[in-house]
Task: structure prediction
Amino acid sequence: MFENPYVFYGLIFAAALLSIDTLLRAVSTIRRANSDVANRLEALRQTKGAENAFGELLKRRGIGGRDGEQTLGGWFNQLIAQTGREYSMPRRIVSVAFLCLVGYILGALFVTQNTTYLVVFALIFGFGSAILLLIMMRRNRIKVFTAQLAPAIDIIVRSLNAGHPLTTSIALVSREMPDPIGSEFGILSDQMTFGSELEQAMLNMYDRVGADELNMVTVSVSVQRGTGGNLAEILENLAQMIRDRLMIRAKIRAISAEGRITAWIMLLFPFGLFYMLLFMVPVYFDPVWESGYGGIVVGVCLALIFFGMIVIRRLVNFDF
Result:
């Protein structure tokens, strides 16, 4: 049925990968549906008291406050912490090794048969895919956190207007709101309970989350504590501003959708055309490889594609 065995192997690999992905997504959905409480409440049940729960949550995510290390390892640890997931060192090694194995198989099927090039491609694919997946997970978590931030501020405002202190209002958010904001505000409440200053605790939370809107909340609270004023009114105005930012961001994404689709088409079209020609006429590119300049041509083309993607991203991406 298939004259090229690599096509058959590729289809088998794709089917297995899709099956595993479907199974993992189903299990993840069931686990999320069966968990109606925040991670902090779960840690409270497994430990003795809020102090142990606070330490347990930080230990699971491999963080303990503001990380002053400006190193690659410090950046990678902070990236993992901002995903909100628990990744022990053995799990990190196994995950990267699995991605490198996937890269080796894909490279053998679609790129080259040279062992040295395959190893290099597998390493680049494994580490690059791991970092890209972590960045995507962090981006999704920040998106969910930002959507929850305005309702959480509303809870704090109502609690302050009812006469409760700020620490009680923050603890109320950790009990009433789901993850990820519930656990983060729970850690914030515990840090303040154990004697940390509000500004330092909020800076720690910003390091764990990385959302720009949370940084605005941190700055606003710090300025209010230094100069005075009605904190409830400040937070209420800040919640409205966050909602307006989310609305503007959604409008910008809708307007720039065509440009993003164009970028993806420009990125995928050369590879699709290459493999279509290779499948239809296997010897079509032989003169290029036999000329001795095939690697240079491919490198230049990939560099131009990468440069074009950067230009298009700058055109459709708006910072405000």
Remarks:
- The chain has two domains: 35-244, 256-320.
- The first helix runs from residue 5 to 34.
- Residues 3 and 279 are 10 Å apart (CA to CA).
